[in-house]
Amino acid sequence: MKRLLAMVLFAVALTGCGYNDFQRLDEDTTSKWSEVLNQYQRRADLVPNIVASVKGEANFEQETLTRVIEARSKATSIQATPELINDPAAFEKFQQAQGELSGALSRLMVVAEQYPQLQANQAFRDLRVTLEGTENRITVARNAYIQSVQQYNVLARSFPTNLTGMVFGYKAKPNFTVQNEAEISRPPTVDFGAK
User: Which of 113, 142, 151, 193 is 20 to 30 A from residue 68's alpha carbon, by CA?
Assistant: First the structure.
């Protein structure tokens, strides 16, 4: 009888201590992370087609194409597993590689604007629209992940659920950050006297 009572009390304690919430939110962050990875993969799959359509322009800057190819290679070389979201160092490395690919693709699109023949190429225009749509999907997926991690981390850091987290090994998860946070936080220089 004592053993049954102890098991019932233990079960009641687990439900009131946030254990089930940890399970639900952990699954939610994993699901949201999978969608982020799905959209990053979609973008990585577009890169070879974009590069191939740009290579047709004889005078196009080879250095820009090389940077895109290298950035894609680096971004896809990182093993993106569900465990990545529990390792802050690996998560930061992954985020940095994806940021480099974003920057390289942005630079490619800016340079491509200087080539009227390329802009007139229907295949390139279609790929550009697809890339823009994919970048928007990445933003939506990242925002959903950020919100999910925020809910999980609040649970992991709040009392008394933080005690449950410690007992069962639930730690706060890393989240996306702004790549150039230092520059964004610096106030702009305004000079009204300059003409």
Answer: 142
Which residue type occupies 76? T
- Six token digits for residue 10: 């233990």
Q: Are the CB atoms for 142 and 111 separated by under 8 Å? A: no
In a domain, 194, yes or no: no
Distance from C-alpha of 117 to C-alpha of 113, rounded to nearest angstrom: 10
Q: Is residue 112 within 8 Å of 118, Cβ to Cβ? A: yes
84 within 8 A of 174, measured Cβ to Cβ: no
Tokens 């023949």, located at residue: 117
| CA-to-CA separations, 150 to 14, 71, 134, 137, in angstroms, rounded | 22, 29, 24, 20
* CATH number of residue 80's parent domain: 1.20.1440.20
pLDDT tens for residues 153-191? Answer: 999 999 988 888 888 989 999 888 765 444 444 554 544
- CB neighbour class for 169 (10 Å; exposed up to 12, middle 13-18, buried from 19): exposed
pTM, entire model: 0.78
How far is 182 from 167, CA to CA, in rounded Å? 36
Burial call 45-69: b when 16+ CB within 10 Å, e when fewer:
ebbeebbebbeebeebbeebbebbe
Give the Cα separation of 119 and 126 in Å (integer). Answer: 10
Provide the number of structural domains found in the chain: 1
